[in-house]
């Protein structure tokens, strides 16, 4: 089995057949599977591999046709783990649910829901696969929903057995415990964003002893008043009228101010708030400037060097050398133009990426045309194994050239020189997909989602082995998801990485 991936179970026979929910959960399977999850945690394994194992335990114990875990973030959810009839959905974005589907986000922790109340495109996909009803269990920490665990069934009636609900709720509580430990989780982005809280406030003596600690201070720092009253303040205090940025042991940042407490000569009031988001934005801005200057420097230097050579030695250069210099200038100028386009496209999260409304198009012709336009080094490494026929896809044909270029460039960069990059495609009843597979360094399970973040690099610093701005996969995800598709990464069996793009059928 590929590290970090759930073993794929045999497909449930739901299309053309009816399979009922088992009368009772498989408790021996539940106990043995849960014990294995605990063993993984005790052995130091964290993050997605353990979450995948938990989902596998759930589908076996509950006799479900498929299981999925959806992790919620600030802009909706994403399927980060799936097995059985839902292994195809990994990486799929899930929009914020509206009434009555948000029964899964409020009310009882475990509910039976018909797929009909899900977003229409998702409901059609599931119904087309013979999945009619689901059990949904909230995964909560301190009243905050950070995800949902779903068990799907083909039954004609809603699965309402209380034992199945109890088992699913138990497994959701296990997932919540994993998130509470923050061991490799959340999987994508920064996870759920907690609403802004009021500023924390403390009154301290001249020697820093806490005399007052308000409720907002408890929420901001996680430290209770009972722990701090008559004890030293756990962070430094700036001089009155100044601002101090301080990093907490858990990695969050506080912006701290202080002032003299009126009417006293020996007390100071200290206010503070969580400034982690602002710190991240400042860091991203500085990183953008650094990355841009670094990535632009190389092609500009080469263009200038060859242009100076042509201008200074034109008469003495033989015609082949002049042609070669002009060719290099043109090639580097093309690279520069593509880089500028990527930078402009990725600096505005709200702006459009690629233009036309989705229409049906021939994915095979599009992939072949895009492959023919790849840079020569990538074109020579690309092994194309496309089927003879494939249903049309629904999306923006023109943008697929950018998607394929970014995926093959990424595959080539992280693979040995000259090693093949494989392009394949397939279709199911609802989607059309293509994959770019390599035999490179592979992707760690905890990085399969972080790789799509803007500017993210697996390595950092001046001694990185793999150059780049960290924008390619970020741009790919934005392009694909705005066509109602999704993109995911996974380790390739035998080594390497598989990048898969799925679009609706046309």
TrEMBL record:
Record-annotated PAS domain positions: 193-230
Stated name of the protein: histidine kinase
Domain Histidine kinase: 291-506
Domain of life according to the entry: Bacteria
Pfam families reported in the protein's UniProt record: HATPase_c, HisKA, PAS
Broad class of enzyme this protein falls into: transferase
Catalytic activity, reaction form: ATP + protein L-histidine = ADP + protein N-phospho-L-histidine
Keywords attached to this entry: Kinase, Phosphoprotein, Transferase, Two-component regulatory system
InterPro entries reported in the protein's UniProt record: HATPase_C_sf (IPR036890), HATPase_dom (IPR003594), His_kinase_dom (IPR005467), HisK_dim/P_dom (IPR003661), HisK_dim/P_sf (IPR036097), PAS (IPR000014), PAS-like_dom_sf (IPR035965), PAS_fold (IPR013767)
Species in which this protein is naturally found: Plantactinospora endophytica
Keyword Disulfide bond applies: no
Subcellular location field: Cell membrane
EC numbers on record: 2.7.13.3
Record PANTHER family: HYBRID SIGNAL TRANSDUCTION HISTIDINE KINASE C, TWO-COMPONENT HISTIDINE KINASE
